[in-house]
Structures are given as structure tokens and as C-alpha cells.
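Hey, sorry to bother you again with one of my protein questions. I've been puzzling over a protein and I'd love to understand its fold better. Take your time with it, there's no hurry, and the full record follows here:
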Amino acid sequence: MARVDPKAVLAGRVPGRPPIGLMTGLAVTSACALVALGLYAWSGGAAGFAVGVIMAVLPVPLLVSLVLLLDRLEPEPWRDLVFAFMWGAGVAVLGALILNTYGYEYLTQPRFGTEQGHFLTATVGAPVIEESFKGAVLFGFLWFRRSEIDNLTDGIIYAAMVALGFAMMENIAYYMKAFEAGGGHQLEAVFILRSVLAPFGHPLFTSMTGLGVAYAATGRRTVGRWLAPIGGLLAAMVLHGLWNGSTAFGYRGLLVVYLFDLGILAGLVGVVIWERRQTVRLIGTYLPRYGGTGLVSPLDVQMLGRLPARKDARRWARRLGGSAAARDMANYQLAATEVALLHQRADRGLADQGRFEQRQRALLELMRDALERFRRDAPPPRRPQVPPWTHGGPTAFRPPPPPMFEPPRPYGTSPSR
């Protein structure tokens, strides 16, 4: 049996075809990141550069893990997430570095002086330039990878990834300046502010663009759908400008804007939780109609609609067949979730019949392949183990045993093979 490529099916690409566009994009973004690092190293000392890189990279794994924790029900393709992160760390940083520098030296500083020029660059120039560069990749996803954006959560996740890449590179410059200014308490204060108290500043700002792009990708065909990305980008610029400008009003101004941003962050988490419940409802609405295919039972639908039950199912699969069976279970769960989201897109008029049928066949084939692979990787043990979510009821993961005696055949027919 030909092996189905789960990653290709879930990502909606042709199996076996190398993603040339993605590879080219990663090469370009990596080159831009190297150029930006070179400019940082050239502008400061080796010791400050090394300290800046270490302190900037140190919290990134934790921050990325927290972002991806919000995307457990229907994870985005890792290739797209890596590209978004590298765009922020490469193209966005290098473009903003060049334009912010030239904007200050040739526009704001000559006209308004050093102090006021810095303030205008930080509160107006930098938010417009930086959010435009970060948002460009999100607009690119809307144009080229629209089918990967299924809900508002996806827009938040992609926005957070590009912003974390940008913040990591930007923090290098801040830590270098603090180190070269004397280090010590000043370096500690900058680290606490940027990596402990407000590590989600850039992700919060850019999430406004992500929300607008996601609404445009998933909303019905109305005027608001076309205006949403522009509105989201403007909201990102305003929030960014408020944060940068709050420092001019001392700690009180910074505290007011900080609490305001915390409220928005809580709202974004609330959106993710609400959409997770909506996706569970979609699974319960659309998956039962596939009961006749033998790919899903009513009890399997209940398992797919609860995150703890999905986790228990993967653990059960791992006990029976190790990592291979757990991977089969995970592929089955992801494909089933994508089927429900595909139906939602069709109901909103976002998927034509040809595209719907093609995608539906691929996902159902992945579910069937995952079941067959699971039965191979996790053969029934001597003492049958009941799947934890079934309470002994029927499930697609344990097909009924063959009959003990073959039923009688009409005279003159040969046995079935």
C-alpha cells in the first residue's frame, strides 16, 4: 500500500514535491537576518554583541512554546511557522533597521532636533515601518496560503511567530546598548522589561494585523471582509505607537499602557478559547455524517471533540504500539479536525465544489491510512485493552473480529479471498 504523506495532506501541498517557494523564501530571510546581525556586530564591540545575542535568544524557546500551546487543536504547518518567524527575524528587521535609521537621520532629526526627532521616530515612524514589514508576510499568507487560515486563532499564531522573530533580533540591539552603557543594573532592567514583563509586546501589536487578515480569509463576502486587514494593520500601528510613546510620561504612563495591553492580551486568549469550543462544535456537527464510511464512530467523535480525550487517545496508542502508533493517532485526529473545518469553509462559500471534493478525498484517505497503519503498528494484545474514550463501545480503531465460522455460500460459488 502506498504511504500517504500526512504532512503534505495536512499542509495542502502536493506530496513528494519540494516546496521550492518556501526554500527560496527561507534562503532570502536567512540572508537578511545575517546581514542584520553583521550590522549589529559592526556597530558595537564583540563582547556586547555576544551578550546581546545570548540574552535575546534565551527566552525564545519558552515564548514560542507558549504561543504554540494555543494552537494544539489544529496546529499550523511547521514550515509556514518557521517562515513567519524567519521573516520577522530577517526581512522585517533589516528593512525596519534601514528605514528607521535613514528616517531619523534625514527627516526627523534635521527638522525637529535630536530629542523630538527621537520621540517622533519612536512613536510614529517606527510603528508604521515595523508593523508594515511584519504585516507584509501576513498579507502574503492571505494571498498565497489563504486555505491555511481557518479561524482567528490562526491569524494570531502567525502574527505572534513573525513578531517573536522580530523582537528577538531587536532585543539584541537593546541589550548591546545597555551593555556598552555600563551593563550591570541597566542591562538587568532592560532584560526584565523586554523579556520578563513585556515579552509579548510585538506579538500583541502584530496580532491586530493577524486578526484582520484571518477575518478576511474566513469571513463571508462583505465590505468588512476587505477592510479588516487594513483596519488590523492600523490598530497594530496605534498600539505600537502608544507603547513607545508612553515612556515619555514616566512610569505612570508606561503602567497605564501596560495594563491596557494586558487587557487586550487577555481578550486574545479569550478569542482562542472561544474558537476552540467552536471547533469542537464543528466536529460534533460534521463528523457524524461520515459514520457510514467506517472511519469514525459516535464515540470517536466524542474523543475528537475534547482535548483531554485526544491526549488520552494518543497515550493509549503509545502504550499499544509505541511512537509509531501515537503518530498514527495524531494524524487521524488532525485529519478529522481538518474535515470539520473544510465543511465550515464550504458553508461560508469559501471553497468551491472542486476544491472541496479534492481536499475532502485527501483528508479521508489520510484518516483511512492512519487507521490501517495504527492496526499494523498496534496489533491487539493478548489481553484486549479497551480504548479509554469508548467505555467498551464500538470504535474505528478496533474493528469487529472476523466471524468464527464462515457463513454458508450458494452452491457453485468459490470462497471469498
In short: Confidence is low (pLDDT under 50) at residues 406-417. The CA atoms of residues 380 and 401 lie 11 Å apart. The chain has 14 helices and no strands. The longest helix spans residues 307-347.
